[in-house]
Amino acid sequence: MAGQFNAHAAGVVKLDRIVAVVDQTVITEQELESRIATVTAQLKKQGTELPEESILRKQILERLISDTLQIQYAAQIGLKVDDNQLDKTIERIAEQNQLSLTEFSEALAKDGISMRKFRADIRNEITIARLREREVDGRVNVSESEIDNYLTSQASRNENQDEFEISHILIRTPEEGATEDIQKAKAKVDKAVNELKSGTSFAKVSVSFSDAPNALEGGNLGWKSGAQMPALFLDALKNMQSGEISPVLRSPNGFHILKLTNKRGGNSPLVIQQTHARHILIKLSEVMSDNEAKQKMDVIKERLDNNEKFEALARQYSEDSTASNGGDLGWVNPGDTVPQFEKAMNDLKDNQISQPVRSQFGWHIIQVIERRSQDMSKESARMKARQEIRGRKADEAYQDWIRELRDRAYVELRLEDKF
User: Using an 8 Å Cβ cutoff, are 258 and 230 in contact?
Assistant: First the structure.
């Protein structure tokens, strides 16, 4: 009996063992093991070879510390995710898996995950995403001159038009690192290189050694245009073949290793079908029910059928900002409007007027004036440039912000005690 009690007690101690202290919060071994199980399942699903357990544990613990710091900060500034938003997100995840909520919960249970734990994890993911948007992404500005310089640089280097599918390993060094810190990083990168030379997969080496935020995803960065990347990366990639791994690259923030998975040209013209349309909108509100709005719109449609002018009725009745302009939306690109509106608009012939159409904004009547094919390469290039500059600046700012959070916090690692 005593032996059974002691075994049980030992089990409790193991589950409650603290592996890290992060300010006023602790990370327990149970939390770490749970995250390890989740990440391991994801890596196996992706076909990524797993690194040694001790290496994986340290990588995942670092991710847990980063997440904990962000959740703590979100609580300090009062950033919360309400249950309604959480419910909608989980419903959407279930729908994407083509399951009802009950079926989804049962599927999670088969994987050893309770719905309560899943809800907590998703709440944290949403919180961290909102925190990043508020503290970092929302503060990143891209000026028109930056876009101009970007496009000028891109035009002067034809290789920037190419797009590369790449993976990345980063061995970080402090900005003002001591010689000892540089030597440690160099030893780590040498070890990573030896692993790659011995035939270990790039994804496994990334999981084992990389300090990049996407290390546990195998370092995959997806498709990047040449102009989106630092010149250091581009100079290496333009001389590489698909499947090749770069030599070690040195930058101010550390050592880098790249793998080129694929390459494609990125300068083909972008011709899209634009629609010149106008509409009348009756919005729904506390004083305007769905039925009342529909009845009002039916009357307007009848007047249009009796040859009253669309522009005049739009000015008189439409509750959209385009009313003063006769409901004219100008040239509309694919994706500019909500799906219900776009489908109805696309089904119309030139000068044809739709039946009342329901969308999330209310009831519409749409008229197509004309259509044209338009080369949007320049506009698309500027939009893409803005997105790429913003993305690069946001990623850099986010990594700096996380490092500042870590520097300000009290973090005590106890994982090493186990070895």
Answer: no
One-letter amino acid of 383: M
pTM, entire model = 0.55
What pLDDT is attached to residue 16? 65
Question: Is residue 53 very low, low, confident or very high in pLDDT (cuts 50, 70, 90)?
Answer: confident
Rg (CA), the chain: 28
* DSSP 8-state secondary structure symbol assigned to residue 320: S
The identity of residue 372, as a single letter, is R
In this structure, CATH architecture of domain 163-265: Roll (3.10)
Distance between CA atoms of 374 and 271, rounded to whole angstroms?
Answer: 5
Strands 357-359 and 254-264, how do they pair? unpaired
Cβ atoms of 386 and 227 closer than 8 Å? no
**The two structure tokens encoding residue 324:** 């003063």
Residue carrying the six token digits 């050592």: 255
Distances (CA, A) of 319 to 181, 186, 247, 313: 64, 64, 61, 11
Decide if 118 contacts 90 (C-beta within 8 A): yes
> Contact 37/56 with Cβ under 8 angstroms?
no
Of residues 268 and 127, more confidence is placed in 127
**Amino acid occupying residue 51:** P
Please give the single-letter amino acid code of residue 269. P
- Topology of domain 2-136 in CATH is Triger factor/SurA peptide-binding fold (1.10.4030)
What are 54's two structure tokens? 């001790």
Instruction: List the structure tokens of 347.
Output: 């089904």
